[in-house]
Amino acid sequence: MPDSVMRESVLRESETHTLVIGGGVIGCAIAYECAKQGLAVTLLDKGTIGSEASQAAAGMLGAQVESHHDGPFYELCKASRDLYRTWTDELEQISGCSIDYIANGIVRVALTETDEVELKGRLPWFGDGVKWQTREQLLTLEPTLGEEVRGGIYFADDHQVHAPKLSEALHAALRTLGVRMIEHADIEQWLLDEQQSHVRGVQLADETIMSTQTVIAAGAWSQSLLEPFDLHLPIQPVKGQCYAVRPQKPVIGHTVFTKGCYVVPKLDGSLVIGATEERSGFDKSINPDAVDTIQQTVIKLLPELARATFERTWTGLRPASADGMPFLGKAPRWDNLFVAAGHYRNGILLTPITAKLMSALLLGQPTTIDLKPFAVDRLL
């Protein structure tokens, strides 16, 4: 092949309306919502789409079980949970993939007096439909609970999905909608205007992509991507380690959650158990002791799992913001740069509402929720 032809193919240029950086469920869902509205979308990921935290998550939609106080974040979580069933029904139709939505609720139990007092303190803002359950009442829901269970709360509306299947469905839907996806894409240079207020596009190794607007939704890697824009967002990776076991017979029908661990039953008969919280940078190595630490609490919670067969363990890096809430909105000083990052433990749960809110911003439409509490510059 002549050198001139090779050179031309290496330095090709393309245009897109919306450029999304990050191929986890958040980035894919934003691309999905924008593509449904007719926008030309290109999605970039530094690795394989859906291979990081989205692949590692247990898939709980724990709007109530994981909330410790009332406020804007709790309302955001509830709004996303309430969207989930309708949103995923449509996603399954477009993608042709099941996400294994399970609507069995979550049982949150207390193993200590301190945890019982803390849980009861949340009841006033959960509403009339959520009540304290005695140990005897919980045993009617889950008869295999351990003797140390003091009581708890049944969150009937907190459901779950299979996180890897959610990623697969979004990936398939993006193909159906004509979204261009580029994996293993290293950004060599950001293309900016002279006033340093407008992002023109990105330079990859073999292509220049010009864009009308850009969204950074790269989870724990978002902070480094934003530094060229003088945005030093406090987002840190927090490693979570989970493992899967397979009991000889079904042990629980609901997700069971307590302080220090959760047990999530999947449709294939396995149980996903997690998770640690380790601030060890971008280290994703397996820690054998982590399984033992979680297992000590699991046996108190569900003694029958002492005999379950161990299948595998894995880790993922959660993107934790300094105040525990995501950054959603336009970046300060930049007229066409947007951020959707810092979802920490709630990335799967917050996927639909994040996608809906960000696509509204990108289309210049009003949002259904006030985004001021989640402003990109709130902690700068």
The CATH superfamily of the largest domain is identified as FAD/NAD(P)-binding domain
CATH top level class name of the largest domain:
Alpha Beta
Overall mean pLDDT: 94
| DSSP, total strands | 18
The run of helices and strands is HEHEHEHEHEHEEHEEEEHEEEEHEEEH
Any guess at the CATH architecture of the largest domain?
3-Layer(bba) Sandwich
Gap between N and C termini, in Å?
A: 52 Å
Number of helices: 10
CATH topology of the largest domain: FAD/NAD(P)-binding domain
Describe the largest sheet: 8 strands, mixed
- Weakly predicted, low-confidence segments: 1-9
C-alpha Rg (nearest Å)? 22 Å
Percent of residues in helices = 25-40%
Key structural traits:
single chain; 380 residues; alpha/beta; FAD/NAD(P)-binding domain; D-Amino Acid Oxidase, Chain A, domain 2; 2 domains; eight-stranded mixed beta sheet
Please characterize this protein's 3D structure.
The protein has two domains: 3-91 and 164-229 and 323-374, 3-Layer(bba) Sandwich (FAD/NAD(P)-binding domain); 106-156 and 236-320, D-Amino Acid Oxidase, Chain A, domain 2 (2-Layer Sandwich), CATH 3.30.9. The chain is 30% helix and 26% strand. The chain has helices at residues 3-10, 25-36, 53-56, 72-95, 113-126, 135-141, 163-176, 222-226, 288-301, 351-362, and strands spanning 12-21, 41-44, 60-61, 106-110, 132-134, 151-155, 159-160, 180-182, 189-192, 199-203, 207-216, 235-246, 255-258, 261-265, 271-274, 309-321, 327-330, 337-341. Strands 1, 2, 8, 9, 10, 11, 17 and 18 form an eight-stranded mixed beta sheet that branches. A hairpin with a 2-residue loop joins β13 (255-258) and β14. The model is unreliable at 1-9 (pLDDT under 50).
